[in-house]
Amino acid sequence: MDKSPHTRAPIGASNWLGGIGRSAARSRATLVAIVVFAFLFLVTDWISPGPITYFDVSFLASGGTTLALAAIGQTLVILSGGFDLSAGAVISLVNAVLAANMSMTDMDASVVEWTAIGIAVGMLVGAFNGIFIAFLRLQPIVVTLSTMFIVQGGTLLILEQPGGFVAPTLGAVYMGDAVPNLLPAPILLLGIVLLLWAWLKRTRYGLALYASGSDPASAAAIGISVPWVRFATYVIAGGLYGLAGVFISAQTGSGDPLVGNSLLLSIFAAVVIGGTRLGGGKGGPVGSVFGAFTLMIVVNILLALNVSAYFSTVAEGGVLLLAVLFASLSRDSVLAEQIRQGLAALRARSVGLLVTQRPKVDRRLAFAARRGVETGTATPVPSFLKRNVETIRYAAPAYVALVLVLIATQFVLGNVLTNFSYWNALLVLSTFLAILALGQGAVILTGGLDLSLPWTIALSGILLAGMVRGSDPALVYALPLVFAVAAGIGLMNGIGVVMLGLSPIVVTLAMNGILQGAALLYSNGTPSGFASPALRWFMTGYLGGVTPVVVFLAAFVIGATVLLGRTSFGRRVYAIGNSLEAARLSGVRTGRVVIAVYVLSALCAALVGILLTGFSGQASLGMGDDYLLPSIAVVVVGGALITGGRGHYLGMFGGALLLTALQTLLAGTTLPYAFRAILFGCVVLAAVIALRERRTS
């Protein structure tokens, strides 16, 4: 029996409601970001001494727009399946370009002209990234990290220290009111950018962007030029970073070569909070804008509650981790699988079915040690060169380049090759990178990357100096405590990667921010204390004409070579880097090995922090900032494959010697310090390009 027309929804209405439902489902993450923002906005209103006014809204808008613009650019890159660590550096570069090229005579400078210049600068950097990533198919993380250091060096060449001048016309346009007492100009700017995105999303490029990020192979199969889509994405993202640099220039009215460096963690946090999936294909800039303002409100709430501003990076790092974890939760997530496996192991243990509970009986089959043993004609053992031909092939270039640098140093600086003091100093300065090469190298060999090294180094040095305060006996308890803290840091990194299934880049980047806040809180912004005499002697004294740390370095190199090349742990590290699934099916407890690798990396970073404190006599904030890219550079230059599975510690040690010799050569010239960052970035890119096709068969 047919239902009455009064009880049936029209077909058009049903389709309309179904369309709304599907759109809501697709935009669920964005809607959640909007709801969280609205809730925190109400909390701000509740804890404020008075009602929120138009001035408060305008202040929030101007404070969050730089981050929101940069987050939109980062969102496009992540939608394409990439990462961009150069975003903050591009913002600093544009700010420096504007501040260094404007003068007091440009009081009425053209806003359109200077905005176009800032966007163009950002697009040029984006094109640089896009060429290496899209067409040369290099790892986005390595390329953009190298670009970050190159751009930072270039920024310091343009503007060495804070200063310069930005025409007030930029501030009047970008920081004023689009509609007096109704619409702040920053909100209008973001609205225009989002409207452009709404149009771009419906073009062929927009559809190709989501397709390329979701499944590059399928996208290529249906005729999408994935390399050109990725190249265009990095160019557009660079332009948005450039616009963010223009806005922050208008906001500050001057230049600062470091103004954008602290935004990197916040940019990723805003993107993740906004619902964009790391790995590509899902999300959008609208959520990222609300994610950016959510972070701003969180910081404002902390300040309103009289919480130290040092907690801001801790909050950002924690929010980033929680947002990524929340977005990844599902029945098929790594965390859900870990819980299921744990429960299964408990049930198996209760009935005695675990492998470790079986009787210890040797069930191995007996094999002849070598073919021909029965006949007395054993196969001859291959020569040393044949056994190690692959290792020599990839490690030798670092040592060849080292010889060339040493020869150049002899010509530039004079008599150094026959000067024992030069060699002693070279080995002392190489110690820091040689130690980091073991930890970062082990992580890279498994296919990961540790971005938490800078503040692990700094926090370790600050903790040691604060506890020791010049006392040798205090080292007895200070050293174990510092290493225990470092082990805990590495353990948390490893658990985040293994147990929670989060990206190593995200986990270690968030951890770096958390450690920065912890160091600031512990030192109250000003580290105190100094190294003990014994530690100072170990790093700067002499024992038989040799600095004691050189003897330690020799022992460390031998131990690291044996650890990665001659132990079961080292073999498992290489197995995981070549194929995680194959290693797991071969019986390797992959989770334990990966966690151990991150613990090893943190311990090496802590050791470097301790030795740096002894070398300089005290610890300082940011003392580890100069070691992130070099720690990766020595591994890559030493012949390791950045995607894991190939490399040898002796090659990494050669890379440490090479980069230290380059530093020494640069220090003896009149070139500015900024060239060091540019050099390291170029060296990494050159090494990755040279070795990208040389995969072991």
Second-tier CATH architecture of the largest domain: Orthogonal Bundle
The unreliable regions are none
For the report, how would you describe the main beta sheet?
A: 2 strands, antiparallel
Number of DSSP-assigned strands: 2
Number of domains: 2
What level of helicity do the residues show? 55-70%
Shape: globular
Distance between the termini: 70 Å
Strand content: under 5%
- By CATH, the topology of the largest domain is ABC transporter involved in vitamin B12 uptake, BtuC
Spatial order of the strands forming the largest sheet:
1-2
Q: If helices are DSSP runs of H or I spanning 4 or more residues, what is the number of helices?
A: 29
- Mean residue pLDDT: 84
Using only C-alpha atoms, the radius of gyration works out to 28 Å
Alpha-beta content class: mainly alpha
Membrane topology: Multi-pass membrane protein
Subcellular location: Cell membrane
Main location: membrane
InterPro entries: ABC_transp_permease
Spell out the blueprint of helices and strands.
Layout: H1 11-26, H2 28-47, H3 54-79, H4 87-101, H5 111-135, H6 140-158, H7 168-174, E1 177-179, E2 183-184, H8 185-201, H9 204-214, H10 216-221, H11 226-252, H12 264-273, H13 285-304, H14 311-328, H15 334-350, H16 384-387, H17 389-413, H18 420-445, H19 453-468, H20 475-498, H21 504-523, H22 533-540, H23 548-565, H24 568-578, H25 580-585, H26 590-616, H27 628-637, H28 649-667, H29 674-691
Antiparallel strand pairs: 1-2
Helix pairs in contact: 2-13, 3-8, 3-11, 3-12, 3-13, 4-5, 4-6, 4-11, 5-6, 5-11, 6-29, 7-11, 9-11, 12-13, 12-14, 13-14, 14-21, 17-28, 18-23, 18-26, 18-27, 18-28, 19-20, 19-21, 19-26, 20-21, 20-26, 22-26, 23-24, 24-26, 27-28, 27-29
Subcellular location: Cell membrane
Keywords: Cell membrane, Membrane, Transmembrane, Transmembrane helix
Protein name: ABC transporter permease
